[in-house]
Amino acid sequence: MMSCSVAAAHSSVGTCTWMRLHPQKRTPTTLALSSTHHKCSYKQQQLELVVTPPLLKRRDAIGLGLGLLHSFLQPQSSSAAESAPCELTVAPSGLAFCDKLVGTGPQAVKGQLIKAHYVGRLENGKVFDSSYNRGKPLTFRVGVGEVIKGWDEGILGGDGIPPMLQGGKRTLKLPPELGYGSRGAGSCVIPPDSILLFDVEFERDKGYYWDIQREMMNVVWDVKGKLNLFRRCNGGRGARQRPSLGPCT
Length: 249
Fold this sequence. Notes:
Elements: E1 2-5, E2 15-18, H1 58-73, H2 78-83, E3 89-90, E4 96-101, E5 113-122, E6 127-130, H3 131-134, E7 138-141, H4 149-156, E8 169-174, E9 196-202, H5 206-233
Antiparallel strand pairs: 1-2, 3-4, 4-8, 5-6, 5-7, 5-9, 8-9
C-alpha cells in the first residue's frame, strides 16, 4: 500500500513511499454472565451456551444461506402455528383458556385416567414446573380432585368452557382460587395468591388403539386356528398343530 507524506507548511507536493501494512489482530470479545440470587428457594437452572466457530468455509456459508432461504419459502408448520399467541377467553368462574391446537380424539369423562404434558408458569413468565423436562406426562384421574380445580375445569369443560379433546393443546390462566390459593406451593416456588398459566397437552390414549390392534390379531389367530383344525380333520397336508384347539369332533 502507498503512503504519502505532505508538508503542511509548503504548497509543494510531498513524497510518496511504498509501505506494507500488517493486518490488525482481532481479539474475541467475551461476555461475562452474572447470576442473581433470589430470596425464594427456586430450583437452580443451568444455561448452556453453544459457541459456533467464527469462520465459515465459503461452501458452508452458501449452504447455510440456501437453507435459510428454503426455510423462509416453506409454509409455516403446525408447531409454528401452535407457538403463535392466541386470545384468552374468560369463563364466568374466572378461568381463562385458549386452544392452540384442537384435538381430534374423544373428550375425557369424569373419573377417567388420562395423561397430560404441561408447562407451568407464573404471571411474570417464570417457569416453575415442566413435565417435558422430566420426559414423562402427568397421569391422573380427571374431575375427582386429584389435581387443582383449574385443571379439572379446564380439561373437562363446563361453565362456558368446551372440553378438551385428545391430542389437543390448551393454555389455561388460573386465578388463585382455582390454583393454590393463599397457601401457595413448593416452599415459595409458587407464592401465595399467584395467578398461574399452564400450557396443557392432552395426550392420546395409545393404549386404547393398542387394545384394538391386539383384539384384531386375536381374531386373525382364531380364524387361522379354525382353518388349521378344518384341514387337520379333513386330512389336509401341512396343517399347523395347535394344542389349545382340542380334538376333532
